[in-house]
Specification:
Phosphorylase Kinase, domain 1, alpha+beta, two-stranded antiparallel ribbon, globular
Length: about 350
């Protein structure tokens, strides 16, 4: 049995070293990899023969079992998720297959690859959304209205009140959530599927040596749920981290609808797409701002103007009328304009 955890960073390092030794790895070099908006850390493990990745997830902050479950499921279904090579669930360490350095974000710096890369990512969603009898394969939480509403609290608590310093009365908070209760009823007709939840280019890898949907490597899927089919699609095509042209968006939507089964009404599906795009954007406003306020991690704030552009475009749709009216009343236009132009002066 390995030692027990305490909060000291040196103790985490000792436990990590012990885990790697227990996994039969010696004479190695550890290189930190990009982090995400969580307490997880990732390192590349370079040995004389190959590279691996180790996840360090402090068990008082993160759980590794959902990652293990989803990795096993996705690989069993023919997708590319990092395979689990060794694990220490008690102390929060996983040894993973290394997908290399070719992230979608890096590959998309070559604009000639953009269409092909997005086609691969869309094809993964088509395959996932065409799965049959999902409930027999995996037991996942439901992405229901309660969970979606809870996420919206981040927008008020961390962005409006925390960043913009706006005073939102309890009455207006109630009106905000009441408006969303009505708005979210429009997504109830949307087919439920496996939702990875953070399906965007930072979490996709180019695996050129593989075939079909396995050419697209999947990361950061531990928070998967069962929810509306439109969620991961809008997460990909209204990506808070990069601009996507209207032409690419239109091409990818057409590709999705040509390949996916059981979409009886495209207009109703797109209604849920814009509603969930707005819900997701408001949530992400809060997540990015919380990173800055709590952890002095301001690198995500650069994406706020793009989030506002997506949000304002989505709000033009009639189903989001009450949300638009609430924002018009409670968020002064000048604040929004300042946020949209914040990078112009940097």
């Amino acid at each position: 049995m390995m030692g027990t955890i305490n909060s000291n960073q040196d103790s985490r390092q000792l436990l990590l070293n012990e885990f790697l030794k227990h996994s039969g790895i010696s004479d190695l070099k550890l290189l930190p990899l990009a982090d995400d908006c969580s307490f997880r850390k990732y390192y590349r493990v370079q040995t004389k023969t190959n590279n691996l990745v180790v996840m360090d997830a402090p068990p008082d902050k993160e759980e590794v079992n959902p990652f293990i479950q989803m990795s096993d499921l996705l690989n069993s279904l023919g997708f590319s998720a990092p395979k689990i090579l060794d694990k220490d669930v008690q102390n929060g360490f996983l040894l993973l297959e290394d997908f290399g350095n070719e992230t979608y974000t890096k590959a998309l710096s070559d604009s000639s690859k953009e269409t092909n890369l997005y086609e691969n990512a869309i094809d993964v969603l088509i395959e996932i959304h065409n799965l049959k009898s999902l409930e027999e394969r995996v037991d996942l939480p439901s992405y229901d209205q309660k969970k979606l509403q809870n996420e919206l609290s981040l927008f008020i608590d961390w962005y409006l009140e925390g960043r913009l310093r706006l005073a939102i009365s309890e009455k207006e908070k109630r009106r905000f959530f009441e408006a969303w209760i009505q708005c979210l009823t429009y997504i109830e007709s949307c087919r439920t599927v496996l939702v990875l939840r953070d399906y965007h280019v930072d979490n996709l890898m180019v695996l050129a040596e593989r075939d079909g949907v396995r050419r697209c490597g999947l990361l950061d899927f531990q928070d998967a749920v069962v929810g509306p089919a439109s969620y991961d699609l809008v997460s990909l095509l209204q990506d808070s981290r990069r601009n996507i042209s209207d032409e690419i968006t239109s091409l990818m939507l057409d590709r999705y609808f040509d390949g996916v089964e059981a979409v009886d009404n495209r207009n109703n599906f797109m209604k849920s797409y814009y509603i969930l795009g707005t819900q997701r954007a408001l949530k992400v406003f809060g997540i990015f701002t919380r990173q800055d306020i709590l952890y002095r991690n301001s690198k995500y704030l650069v994406h706020i103007p793009r989030l506002w552009r997506y949000t304002l475009a989505n709000l033009q749709f009639e189903a989001l009328g009450e949300i638009r009216a609430w924002l018009d009343k409670n968020v002064p236009q000048g604040f929004i304009e300042n946020e949209i132009t914040m990078n112009d002066n940097s």
